[in-house]
Design goal:
With 215 residues, this protein is an alpha/beta fold. The protein is built from ten helices and ten strands. The chain has a single domain, classed as Rossmann fold, CATH 3.40.50.720. The longest helix has 13 residues.
């Protein structure tokens, strides 16, 4: 499968490398086609790896991942272009974390709105599925790093898209429990987990942990 990843940071690179390991073709997208991080990642990941602009990556992928910084996601998607996004599934991994006042960051969108919702409102033909945003990127693609079973959340308006993403999370990344929280408004709660996650990381002195819903 051809997969476009918007964003060249550690999250995008980690997801991209895993997807290539599984046999997919992956293009990392950035503002420009000469992004140094994307060039280096491409060199390290072989013939199935490539890089380009946001628009080129969006056009390339049958499925897309938004791994940009949350405060820059809408601008990145605008650069990607509606013509390259419409009708596709976008797995939105980003969180609207504002680091302008230092650490810990605050959420630039919360309570009555979310980044996931804003993306869906702006790109109505895009099938936005919020997922994987509540954990460290290594766990996203390798949940077995934790010995105990743990959960990944998702939400979105399109039921078929969510079914496809859930299957991908299970078959490609090895997730056992995918909890569907409903429509895209559930992204509010998923994104608002981040302040708690950051506090836990500081307390536990590690990013390698996750949430488990016990019933």
């Amino acid at each position: 499968m051809k997969i476009g990843i918007l964003g060249t940071g550690i999250v995008g690179q980690t997801i991209g490398s895993k997807l290539i390991h599984l046999g997919n073709e992956v293009m990392l997208g950035a503002r420009t086609d000469n992004n140094e991080k994307a060039i280096e990642w491409t060199k390290q990941n072989g013939a199935k790896a490539s890089h380009g602009t946001f628009a080129q990556s969006a056009a390339f992928g049958n499925i897309l991942f938004n791994c940009t910084s949350g405060t820059a996601s809408l601008a990145a998607l605008n650069l990607a272009g509606k013509e390259n996004l419409n009708g596709k599934i976008l797995i939105d991994v980003a969180n609207p974390l504002d680091f302008s006042k230092g650490m810990p960051p605050t959420l630039s969108i919360c309570n009555t709105d979310s980044l996931g919702e804003q993306i869906q409102k702006l790109f109505t033909e895009l099938k936005v599925v919020k997922a994987l945003n509540t954990m460290n990127c290594k766990l996203m693609v390798e949940p077995s790093l934790l010995k105990s079973d743990h959960d990944v959340f998702m939400c979105g308006n399109n039921e078929d898209a969510k079914s496809e993403v859930a299957l991908m999370l299970k078959e490609w990344f090895g997730w056992k429990t995918v909890i569907d929280l409903g429509d895209i408004t559930a992204a509010r709660g998923m994104e608002m987990i981040l302040p708690l996650w950051l506090r836990l990381m500081g307390t536990l002195k590690t990013p390698t942990f996750n949430f488990k819903i016990v019933r």
